Amino acid sequence: MLKNPIPKVTNQLQHRAIGIINGKFAPLSSEQLNRGFLIDNKDEKIETVVLGKALSLLKKHIDLKKSYYWIVYPKNKNTQNLHLQVAGIWDPYQLNDFPNDSSKTNFSKLLEELDLKDNYFSVRGELVFVNTQKKEIVVKICPDIKSKNLKNKNFKLVIKGELSLELLHSFVSLDINRDGNSLKLIKYEVIEKDLSRNS
To answer: pTM for the full model?
Structure first.
């Protein structure tokens, strides 16, 4: 059974921002493995932090000289400045129950079977801003976190793309492609129009 790095949503209005990137992780230093850069196949660097549970995987299983598919959460303040948080590593062999003849297998084909590809991101949240001149949109993501401290958990992502102003405050599901340090809209679906009326 192939484990999908980006699981199907369990709820129509599930917020999320998650993606998959193939590349090498370069820590800032051997003492500080949790911070560094993800370097993709085009040698572009993205500032990256490795979250707790992925850190133990990194220490035990990861050869820093090799490329892996990293499951990441994107954060940004503008379209030029992407920051990633590594949540996991997608390796169907080491980390799933797979026959280990990985040399024969084509990871990108496996991803295609799951309707995914390198640099793909799934972003779901409320469209809160549309800049028609700059062709940018902002989506607010409120992760479903059970903790009381919700203030820091909501965040906004700035995405290159065009959506109609009429969709403001709608809940949208976006297919995004990473291009360098930018997130670009490929296609979108409106899940629910005008959330402000329901709240």
So the answer is: 0.89
